[in-house]
Amino acid sequence: MNKLILLAFGVIFCFTAINAQKLENEAKVEALLAKMTLEEKIGQMNQYSGFFDATGPAPKDENNKLKYEHIKTGMVGSMLNVRGVKQVREMQKLAVEGSRLGIPIIFALDVIHGHKTISPIPLAEAASWDLEAIKQSAKTAAIEASAEGLNWTFAPMVDISRDPRWGRVMEGAGEDPYLGSKIATARVTGFQGDDLSKENTIAACAKHFAGYGFIESGKDYNKADVGTSTLYNIILPPFKAAVDAHVATFMNSFNELNGIPATGDKFLQRDILKGKWNYSGFVVSDWDSIGEMEEHGFAKDGKHAAEIAANAGSDMDMESYVYLNHLKDLVAEGKVDVKLIDDAVRRILRTKYALGLFDDPYRYCDEAREKKMIRHADHEAAALDLAKKSIVLLKNENNLLPLAKSGEKITVIGTLADDKTSPLGNWRLASDDETAVSLIEALKARKGNEITFVAGPKLLEKSPMFHENSAVNTTDRTGFDEAVAAAKNAETVIMVLGEHGMQSGEGRSRANIDLPGLQQELLEAVYAVNSNVILVLSNGRPLAITWAAENVPAILETWQLGTQSGHAIAAVLYGDYNPSGKLPMTFPRHVGQIPIYYNYKSTGRPGPKWEVFWSRYTDETNAPLYPFGFGLSYTSFDYKDLKINVKDKEVEVSVTVTNTGKVAGEEVAQLYIRDRVASVTRPVKELKGFEKFALKAGESKTVNFTLTGKECGFFNNQGKFIIEAGDFDVMVGGSSAKGVTGKFTLK
Ligand code: BGC
Known about the structure:
Blueprint: H1 2-35, H2 38-44, E1 46-49, H3 62-72, E2 78-80, H4 85-98, E3 106-109, H5 122-128, H6 131-147, E4 152-153, H7 177-192, E5 205-209, H8 228-244, E6 249-252, E7 256-257, E8 260-261, H9 266-276, E9 282-284, H10 302-312, E10 317-318, H11 322-332, H12 338-354, H13 367-373, H14 377-390, E11 392-396, E12 409-413, H15 439-445, E13 450-454, H16 480-488, E14 492-498, H17 519-529, E15 533-538, H18 546-551, E16 554-557, H19 565-573, E17 637-646, E18 651-659, E19 665-675, E20 686-695, E21 700-707, H20 709-712, E22 714-715, E23 721-722, E24 726-733, E25 740-746
Parallel strand pairs: 1-2, 1-10, 2-3, 3-4, 5-6, 6-9, 12-13, 12-14, 14-15, 15-16
Antiparallel strand pairs: 7-8, 11-16, 17-18, 18-21, 19-20, 19-24, 22-23, 24-25
Helix pairs in contact: 1-12, 2-11, 2-12, 5-14, 6-7, 6-13, 6-14, 7-8, 10-11, 14-19, 15-19, 16-17
The chain binds beta-D-glucopyranose (BGC).
């Protein structure tokens, strides 16, 4: 009891201390704002990308010379793409010692999945459904990034997407707003910790606000036309979760939403974010997204774009230069109210105070810490842990997996098997090429089996760089026949196929989502001579691998798993880790089924009732290849005894899960509901709870869920959250496709 009282006092004390600190910071913000000229205020709203010779004499290149001078005169609030203690310190010095008020710069980078130690790509992390491990991944990224002088990451990307053609699905948490919201919270709290001013935490950024994941035809930067029901119930919830987790910043988005570029959208930024949600952080534009409103046909020139964006609530201009060039005139002309400028600057300064930059602008600049923390053994261990948890077993006929520990002749085929760069995935700006453990390295490090590696034909014409696309090889068949011949003599063939890490990500949309290049042909040719094939997929998006799913006996989805990739895959192949991942995104049978997602709405003709006139394709089934939430294990789990108890304000649901196989394993029990009749139609299934747990062979566990109004209600078309009485279906199972079912009525 005494302990409880002490704990309560402790919590109250912390709370009061945090609030007191906030109030003190607010007073400091006001005092500083009162000293600033309009130019200095506009300077804070300006963000530049880095230039390389910051530490030398003033740069010679005209543009960089200008940036350099602007930093010294307080015309730059933030820099992106500058990292490393030495560089950051030099630039910070320019701002702090050079400018009149010495306001420190906030340094940003896209720290998306790890920093130098690379974690699985975010889509893979989401497949772990392990919120603690995901939070830890963001935490270690923050430790490494802050050790390199950074204090702000442009992550997490919380865009929900139903379109695997879009290359940026690798950066998100998949298709579901409930899972997406939980992961948004985990990532934000991982990056930011409980105190932003600590030297090992960094400000997070919820992006891209909003609708980017719904761009038409999956083609990057395209427009999005989204109905209100989808906006409020699918797109916005993860952003709101980030706000509730106190995310320090937001980024708006390249796309237009229903005819208004998101960057210039007052409804999104002022009415919803800063109005309804009462958000006190700031909004940064996406790269040149203010300037790009001209190309959208929404602004007549840069000045007009600056006017629209500032009025709409875009607080910081990333690399458009239009705030710096035009805001002063726009204020003088009465087109932008100085109160809005003050509001934006207040938000930016507030964040800088929260980061502790005014107490010590060099807080994040400690060479010794930089040396010690980069690729720290603990970070590699956490990356390995999450990499194992992110792998999804899609098929395992006749228990082909796990492999025997010894005595087998295994042939490994596919250039991705010995690639040390591709597993790092896209969006890993700080990491060096060739720093991942390849699968071949990991397999060869294990004694016991005879491992032969044959690369087969190359996947790409040349190795792609961040700013380049690389053509897929469809003509050079060198190595093809050799691979097929090697497969003939093997007992087991492991084929490592999929996409290079740089084939997904920004600007990497695909119209075909099959195995690119010669890989499908190679897979079929190998299978023809030896059907004992284990397909190890490596990719940044769901792929339509229907032939493989119907023919190849074992398939392991390994995404791009980061620096520890090879060890993680080998651990699963050998059964040292029993796979536990579940798909965060539906895999289609064919690209023509896209958008395909589990939480679709019923039509008036869901069928199959008539021969012709029901909602379907004439040449493909409606079913996906692999549904959302799906993933196998080396053991099996049985669900039974669904119990539902409707209480006054809550519904309690419980189920018994038993490990019915021979080995220990982890399962993710998922709860779905369907609101049968509502004033705005509801999806046929909606995830509303999940729990990941381990069970020994033969062991059972009762899993409990509580549904409240929050889970049972929804947003109507006016954006109002409502809870309606009526009948609900419940399903609890190991995927969105199958489970034990029941019903309840909400009074
Ligand atoms: C991306 C953002 C990213 C920014 C800065 C843009 O191209 O859309 O997500 O944060 O660049 O690198």
